[in-house]
Amino acid sequence: MELAVYNTKGEKTAKTVTLSDSIYNIDPSDHAIYLDTKQYLANQRQGTHSSKEKSTVSGSTRKLKKQKGTGGARVGSIKSPLMRGGARVFGPHPRDYSFKLNKKLKELARLSALSYKAKSNSIIVLEDFTYETPKTKNFAELLQNLKLDGRKTLMVLADVNKAVYLSSRNLQRAKVIRACDLNTYEIVKANNLVILESTIAEIEKTFQN
Predict the structure, then answer these.
(1) Could you tell me if 80 and 165 lie in one domain?
(2) Do 38 and 141 sit in the same domain of this protein?
């Protein structure tokens, strides 16, 4: 697949890049995408939720009223889940939500997500650029030039670029990520991928290894 390279003004340049079919044109696996996305979201959960059961709720153990003769239901403890301020039945407890996936399956998921983006023409290749100082206005203008303002955009860099990252941080629908940190969830979540020219080789290198 061959794509034109754009500059920061949103104009096509004379350059083109060829995307590898082994990365951007495979037969995608929806189930692999589902599992990898599920794992990513599960790993984000802290799992620190907790509730008190009858044995951990503070309160008197005195029997509230006699067993028989009141005409009402028997009540044994003020800590009963039926009582106001009582315990909770089968409440949540701290746990680890993370689970493991096979490396090949995770790789298949990322390749599938990239292939979907390529087939829907949602990938834009951009000339390498940088900013002298971080400025949100510059990044917003870049997205506007590429006609991506208001859309969820994921920009993939070959390496750390602090100025570009800080320029995008205040924009709610824009995110900057390194090629080595590329994951299925971020790819699927974005409407468009903006890949820098030098990042193409970095992505290929990642999947070849």
Answers:
(1) no
(2) yes
